[in-house]
Structure formats: structure tokens, C-alpha cells
Amino acid sequence: MLRLKLVPDNPAFDFLRQLKITTSVSVLLVLASIGLFFVNGLNLGIDFRGGILLEARSEAPVDIADVRADLNQLALGDISIQTFGNERDVLIRVQRQDGDEKAQIVAIQRITAALGEGFDVRRTEFVGPTIGAELAEKGVLAVGCALLAIMIYIWFRFEWQFSIAAITALSHDVLSTVGLFALLRFEFNLATVAAILTIAGYSINDTVVVFDRVRENLRKYKTWDQNKILNKSLNETLSRTVMTSVTTSLALLAIIVFGGAVLRDFALAMLWGVTIGTYSSIFVAVGLISRFDLKRSDDEDTTAPVPEYER
């Protein structure tokens, strides 16, 4: 049987040899992302800008494309439509209309009329700018707390040098994702915040696998040069890293192609996150710990258990 091999057997790539180039690329990427954030800003969705929310149930399965076409004729601005629960329930978000509360009520009446008698509008909400600001604040807080918790976890699991490297790699991933949204003007909403948190989880999982192998090899090869051990650890986990990234990317590509407009931005953010997370695990996280003089165990355990993950 023909086996697909994305990575050759017993790879021996010298990753750390490219450290100067990858460090320059990462610094430029982060600086460009920060610059784009302040120059272009983010295309904030209704969740953060405020707007109108309607929950409706149709007598028949909802055709999102038809509903979107009908509501776009109202010229109410940004409109987000998605099904939830089952194919008859639909959630409609419309950007906040200019004017006071009466303007919002008029917009709700127009949307209800456009949906027609086949829809039963079960709930209407108006998300004001204050609530949007609170959601934005809580979104930033959620990302910050997640990064802090991950740093503490890595610190206790390994050493402080590893936690510094891990949090730097995660910050690199988060900032570059925000920069991507600022550049391409994708809608930045609560789903995007969820995508960023997922990216952080994916990236740290990849990084911990590499760190585990580094720790094991530090114990096994005490006389080796530190950079040689780091390169060996990266090569030993390379197959697992690449296979995980490729299979995850295939699933995300399927969502991008078939998931519709509602999930497309989320999937694109995730796809970018998987790519940049893989890169940062290798070149940012391990590249940074190569700058430290890592502690090697005093135990004479040359038969340290091999991690469970496959090569």
C-alpha cells in the first residue's frame, strides 16, 4: 500500500540556522499588524458596534440566500443572517440605524414585513453601542486572561524560559491574526474572538508537544550542544506537526468552500491561525528558548520515556 509521506523519514533540517531570517520576518509581521490596526482599524461587526437582533422561525426550511437578497433590498446596511438550532430558525443581525430608538423600531418593522407571513418573529433586541463596547472590553479581557493562564501553565509544567517563549509565540499569532483582519477588512465579531482563542489553544498544543520532546532530549543527551538538541527535537516532532496542520487545514478549507458566508471569515481566521501557529511553534517558540541556557536534569536517566506522540 502506498503511504503518503509529507515529511521524509529521519529528517535532519537545521531549523535554527534560519533563525535570523525568521526572526526578522516575525518582527516585521508583528510591526505591520500593529500598524495596520492603528491605520486601517478593524471592520467591527454588529456585536461590537451595536445593532438590531431578530430571531424568527419559518414554516419551511430557510433559504439563507433568498432571505439575504430580500433584506438587502431594504438598504439597512450590514446584515448578518444565520440559522441555529434547526433549519427553520434564523437569527438576523442588522447594523444600528442612524437616529434614535424610533429609527430602530421602523427598521424592525421593515424587516418583519420583508420576511413575510411565512416567518414568525419570536424575539427582537436592540444592541446599543454601550453593550457593544462592553462586549469588546470583555473580548479583549478573555484573550488576555487566556494568554496569562497559558503562560502560568507552561511555567509550572516546564520552566520560566519556556513560558516566556510560549507567550511570545502566542502573542505573535494573535497580533498577526488581528493584522490580517485589519488588512483584508474581514468582519471582526464575537466569532472572531472565539477563533482567536481557538488559535491560541491550537498553537499552544503544538508548542507543548515540541517542548515535551525538548525536555526529554535535554535529559537524554546531556553532553550535546543545546542547539543540536533543539534541532533534533523539532525534527522528531516535525511529522506529527505537519500532519496535524494539514488535516486541520483540509477541514477548514471544506468550511470555507461549503460553509457559507457566515462561517467563511471564521474559517479563514482559523486557517491563518493554524498556519502561523505551526510556524511560530518551530521558529518563534523554539527560536526564543535557544537564547536561554536551559537547565538539564541532574538525574542520570538516559532511558527517559519517549513521549507518546508519534514521530
What does this molecule look like?
- The chain has 311 residues and is α+β, with helices and mostly antiparallel strands.
- The chain is 63% helix and 12% strand.
- The protein is built from nine helices and six strands, in the order αβαβαββαβααβααα.
- The protein has helices at 19-39, 46-49, 64-72, 101-115, 129-157, 160-184, 190-220, 226-258, 260-289, and strands spanning 43-44, 51-58, 79-84, 86-95, 119-127, 187-188.
- The chain has a four-stranded antiparallel beta sheet. Strands 1-6 form a two-stranded parallel ribbon.
- Helix 5 packs parallel to helix 7 (190-220).
- The longest helix is centred in the last third of the chain and has 33 residues, at 226-258.
- The protein is elongated, with a radius of gyration of 24 Å.
- The two termini are 20 Å apart.
- The model is unreliable at 300-304 (pLDDT under 50).
Question: What proportion of the residues form beta strands (DSSP E)?
Answer: 5-15%
Our Rg estimate from Cα atoms comes to 24 Å
Shape: elongated
Identify low-pLDDT runs: 300-304
Query: Strand-and-helix sequence, N→C?
Result: HEHEHEEHEHHEHHH
Class from helix and strand fractions: alpha+beta
Q: Numbering strands along the chain, what is their spatial order in the largest sheet?
A: 3-4-2-5
Largest beta-sheet details:
4 strands, antiparallel
- Please count the helical segments: 9
- Give the mean pLDDT: 82
Number of strands: 6
Termini, distance in Å? 20 Å
Instruction: State the helical fraction.
Output: 55-70%
